[in-house]
Predict the structure.
Amino acid sequence: MTEQPWADLGAGRAELVVWYLHDVELVGEGVRGLTVLELENEVARSPHGLQVSWEELTDLMRNAEDIHDLVATGHLAPTEVTIDPATGDYPGCVAVVEIFDSGPCRVGWDADAAAGGR
C-alpha cells in the first residue's frame, strides 16, 4: 500500500481525529484480536460506524493482503456519524479514507475544519 494517504493527512494530525470504520471487506488480519470476519460483522452491527484509533486503522490497512472495500471517516469529536444516502457525502467529517473494489486509496482532508474553522 502506498504511503501517500499518511502523507496527505500529515504527521500528528490524524491521531487527533476520532475515526469511524463504516465499511470493511478485506483479506488479512483484523484488529483488537478480532478475525476479519468478526471485524466485518462488528462494523456491520455498528449503526454509526465502529470507532477505531488511527493506529488501528493504519495497522488494518497496512497488514491487509487485499482491501476490497473500506470507508473510514474522521471527526474532531465523537459523534453519531451519518453518510448522506442521496449523495454519498460525509457531512461533518474532517477526513475520509475510501477504497472501493480493490482500487486505489482516496483520502480527503478538510484542513480548515481540522484547524477549527469553516
Q: What stands out?
A: The mean pLDDT is 78. The beta strands are 18-27, 50-52, 66-75, 95-99, 106-109. The helical segments are 4-9, 36-45, 54-63, 111-114.
